[in-house]
Amino acid sequence: MEDRLKLKLDKMISLYEYLRKEYKWNDDFMLRFTAFIYTVHDRAFDREQFDEMIEHMKTASARFSHYRSDQAFSIAALLINKYDNPKEAFNKQLKIEERLRTSGFKKSSYLCIASYALMLTAKEEDWNERIERAAEIYKGMKKDHFWLTGVDDYPVVILLAASPESSKNITNNMEECFNKLHEAGFSKSNGLQFLSQILTFVPKPTEDKIKACKDVFHYLKDNKVKIYYSYYGVIGFLEVLGDETMKAAEEVVEVYEYLRANKDFRWLGNDMNVLMATSLVCNEYVQNKVEEQALEEGLIATSIETLIAAQTAAIIAATTAATAAITSSAQY
């Protein structure tokens, strides 16, 4: 493993250990995600600033808002690391969320990430048009996969709506990838739908995309990194890297093994460690490509980080739902 990645891993693990001690009553995965965000942005954690941001979010949002739950940690981390004035950005995010709800998007933890993604990738004067296109794409997805399409697709449709392609072409492209991936052995699932969504960002023929996904899947499997259907999206993160996909996959294996060797991450489970490893590696490659001007900022803005945020939204929501179910059942 290269020193740059090992240094980031050690920083992330160290920050997570600090957060776990300081916020021991909060959801463990939220703390891991917070540590991850600060690490990839190479920013020192300022507890006073973070606590003020959490308090501002609670004060500015409605009583039963998701921003008053543990999910506030993930949003606070994203906003602090992306904006000079995160409180102002959050107020703007609330306005976006209200517009999304007015347009038919349902209130959920995924809507929080969707509104963040829109704010990050569109100018204010373009919000309404993007929302309208996102709603069209969502309806097209719902028509193709009624049972698979739901609120967890909100963040990605916001990103897909930035494409100059027509809504019909986007959903057709997605459907073609979905069907050919299934024919190639991938299980029909929400994870496969997410992977097919990510592949719409990759500018090459469908057959080449499918072959590349198979190559990554089997390479990881051969190196004892099994990708279960819920996490097919990580294959898409790697595929967005183009010619460096397989080189990045090699580093994912190294990072995965390093995390598994750490006592605080060993018990986290195969899936979560794969996501963490892939996210760290892909972010590193993206930053290098931007510095080398090998990728345009616009492509970056609508690819890796926001797609990872979308995948993370699913994990956060699932974690929150599971915790609520356990708490509820314990009361009876």
Explain this structure to me?
This protein is mainly alpha-helical and 332 residues long. The chain has one domain (3-330). The chain has helices at 3-22, 28-40, 47-60, 72-82, 86-102, 109-121, 127-144, 154-160, 167-183, 190-199, 206-222, 233-239, 245-260, 263-266, 270-291, 297-301, 304-330. The radius of gyration is 19 Å and the shape is globular. Mean pLDDT is 85; it is low at 297-302 and 319-332.
Structural class designation:
mainly alpha
Secondary structure tally, helices:
17
Number of strands: 0
- The shape, in one word, is globular
Q: First CA to last CA: what distance?
A: 50 Å
Largest beta-sheet details: none
Helix fraction by DSSP (H/I, runs of at least 4): over 70%
Low-confidence stretches: 297-302, 319-332
Radius of gyration: 19 Å
Mean pLDDT figure: 85
List SSEs in N-to-C order: HHHHHHHHHHHHHHHHH
**Tally of distinct domains:** 1
> Strand portion, in percent?
under 5%
Spell out the blueprint of helices and strands.
Blueprint: H1 3-22, H2 28-40, H3 47-60, H4 72-82, H5 86-102, H6 109-121, H7 127-144, H8 154-160, H9 167-183, H10 190-199, H11 206-222, H12 233-239, H13 245-260, H14 263-266, H15 270-291, H16 297-301, H17 304-330
Helix pairs in contact: 1-2, 2-4, 3-4, 3-5, 4-5, 5-6, 6-8, 6-17, 7-8, 7-9, 8-17, 9-10, 9-11, 10-12, 11-12, 11-13, 13-15
